[in-house]
Design a protein that fits this description.
Elements (H helix, E strand, L loop, with lengths): L1 H26 L22 H13 L2 H16 L4 H10 L4 H6 L1 H23 L1 H12 L3 H14 L4 H18 L4 H10 L2 H4 L6 H10 L6 H8 L4 H16 L5 H12 L27 H21 L13 H6 L3 H23 L4 H4 L2 H8 L1 H20 L2 H9 L9 H16 L2 H15 L6 H21 L4 H10 L3 H29 L2 H26 L1 H17 L1
Helix pairs in contact: 1-2, 2-3, 2-23, 3-4, 3-21, 6-9, 6-12, 6-18, 6-20, 7-9, 7-16, 8-9, 8-10, 8-14, 9-10, 9-26, 10-26, 10-27, 12-13, 12-24, 13-25, 14-27, 14-28, 15-29, 16-18, 21-24, 22-24, 23-24, 23-25, 23-27, 24-25, 25-27, 27-28
């Protein structure tokens, strides 16, 4: 019944948009063109925002991002072509901002290459047993529950290149470690999920940095510069990491997670519910001749990070004697072409990884190249999302001149603009939850945000707004049961998926409330250091209040858990 009602709502909304487009075509398409460079009278007007509005509304209803983004692109092409049927198709496919033009752009191709290489490296490391070896080492090294949770977080932070890479690795590595310390699979899944997208969103050398920078490029500031600028304002991602540290050190559990942790610590039941969907599963193949080593995981990741940094500063002119940034690391990094730099770096790391595994005898020559098509397949989904998001951005911004309208509309907002980052955060979270994708959400929101706040006149608010859009997208994706990252985190932890969803939502909502308040404060104060200190203080204070309330409400449960932990520690 729910699916039927969703379909009805979807087609009703689609019908409304079709009627609206028909009315516009009759009443507006012959109006005078207000922007000289434009090809349509809709350019620079409110209707220039119709393509992303269509994408947002349909995505919220259908909870499916691919068709929603495509239909948004189609509406954009229709308006840009001024309702000419054949020209609509041409604009959509091979126009100045069409799909073919977008995909063939050198920077975008570089980002796609980077994603594919990541997929190949993930598959290679899964085949060689490096993750399994690291897990054995960590099991012997970590001595406490807090240490096991912090080790899981540390590994998640280390693997900051890509969230897929993160989820595909951390769970398998840390399952035996957390199991030995009676940490529930729900808690493990939460930590994995919380160090996947949130970490990638604040790491300059990541697939997410490449994607976001592609959405916000302008004449005044590069995409990578904008991405770096938004990091200290990205409250949801930063506070999520802070929350993991605090709850791990202080043993704070609440909501349904408390039940799972009680059962794990007192009863030795890591799952709580009867479902054991991954029981007996083996994620990784054994390395040839038992030659797997911790270095088989660590070394490729370290080399990948190092080579990507080298690739970025190379494209920024660090090694170019004629460049103004020669020998200037930070200047070259800020001036870098993110897509090209990451593609160059990842290719170097991939060559190294192949040679390293061959020389070690961890994998055979022929078997290693099975990872090439497997890696590409793993990245088809993000590549498709990026393609449509790039096209929608181009059609809206450059074909419809939506920036002109938004800037004019917001010019009189005055002090009200200071509250917009908090609103943007909420909208982004709603879209991310409904669609299950951070990339799709940011692809829709980021182009609008950078148009609402002119970087020349409002650089700080523009940065805060972008951070709010990124934070909101990650938060919604973090809670969504249909999110690929959420699903992979459940699989990596061998946790029943709905258990992960229901235990994680109270934790994510706690961070979201603090982040929302922090964005309000940020819009008013606009001082990065002061605002970050306030946000962190609010987060810690909130968790301490929750701990006090839960300790008073469930005194007996926490006493049993403490006693069980003492017994477990004495046995080690």
């Amino acid at each position: 019944m729910e699916k039927k009602s969703t379909k009805i709502a979807y087609f009703v909304a689609l019908g409304v948009f079709v009627v609206l487009l028909a009315i516009l075509g009759v009443t507006f398409k012959d109006a005078p063109i207000i922007i000289e460079e434009a090809t349509t009278p809709f350019a620079g007007t409110f209707w220039s925002l119709l393509p992303p509005i269509v994408a947002i509304v349909l995505a919220l209803i259908s909870k499916e991002v691919y068709s929603s983004l495509f239909l948004g692109c189609l509406v954009g092409a229709l308006l840009v072509s001024n309702y000419h049927p054949w020209e609509t198709l041409v604009q959509l496919v091979e126009g100045d901002n069409g799909i073919v033009t977008t995909v063939s752009d050198a920077g975008n191709v570089a980002i796609i290459v980077f994603l594919v290489v990541l997929g190949i490296m993930v598959d290679l490391m899964n085949k060689t047993g490096g993750s399994e070896a690291f897990g054995r080492w960590a099991k012997k090294t970590v001595k406490s529950r807090s240490g096991a949770q912090l080790m899981t977080m540390l590994l998640g932070v280390l693997i900051f290149i890509d969230d897929y890479f993160n989820c595909l690795t951390v769970g398998a590595v840390m399952r035996p470690v957390t199991e030995s310390h009676h940490i529930s699979r729900a808690k493990l899944a939460y930590i994995i999920d919380s160090t996947a997208a949130p970490v990638c969103m604040i790491a300059p050398v990541s697939s997410w940095a490449a994607a976001v920078s592609g959405y916000v490029n302008s004449e005044n500031v590069s995409g990578i510069q904008m991405f770096i600028r938004q990091i200290p304002w990205n409250y949801y991602c930063l506070l999520t990491l802070l929350m993991i540290v605090v709850i791990s050190l202080l043993n704070i559990d609440y909501g349904s997670m408390l039940t799972h942790e009680y059962n794990a610590q007192v009863k030795g039941d890591l799952f709580t519910t009867p479902e054991r969907p991954f029981e007996g599963a083996d994620d990784y193949e054994k390395a040839a001749s038992g030659k797997s080593s911790v270095l088989d995981l660590i070394l490729p990741v370290v080399v990948l990070i190092a080579t990507c940094i080298i690739g970025l500063i190379y494209t920024g002119g660090f090694f170019d004697a004629e460049s103004e940034y020669v020998g200037d690391f930070m200047g070259a990094f800020s001036n870098a072409s993110s897509g090209s730099g990451l593609a160059i770096g990842s290719m170097l790391a991939l060559v190294f990884t192949f040679i390293y595994f061959w020389l070690r005898g961890a994998i055979g020559f022929e078997k290693s190249f099975e990872s090439v098509p497997n890696g590409f397949i793993q990245m088809i989904s993000p590549i498709l999302i990026l393609t449509f998001a790039w096209t929608l951005c181009g059609l809206t911004r450059y074909g419809m001149y939506s920036a002109d309208f938004v800037v004019n509309a917001m010019s009189g907002a005055g002090d009200l603009a200071k509250f917009l980052p908090a609103v943007i955060f909420i909208i982004g979270a709603a879209i991310g939850f409904a669609t299950g994708t951070s990339w799709g959400t940011i692809g829709i929101m980021a182009p609008i945000v950078v148009q609402v706040f002119d970087f020349d006149t409002q650089p700080i608010l523009c940065t805060i707004g972008l951070a709010a859009a990124c934070s909101g997208g990650v938060m919604g994706d973090h809670c969504s049961p249909i999110s690929d990252t959420t699903i992979m985190a459940s699989a990596g932890a061998h946790c029943y998926h709905l258990n992960h969803v229901f235990t994680q939502i109270p934790y994510a909502l706690t961070v979201a409330v603090v982040a929302f308040v922090s964005f309000i404060i940020a819009g008013l104060i606009q001082n990065v250091v002061i605002c970050l200190i306030i946000a962190c203080a609010l987060m810690v204070a909130t968790l301490l209040v929750i701990k006090a309330i839960m300790a008073k409400k469930h005194q007996g449960i926490f006493a049993e858990m403490a006693e069980a932990n003492k017994v477990l520690a004495s046995q080690k």
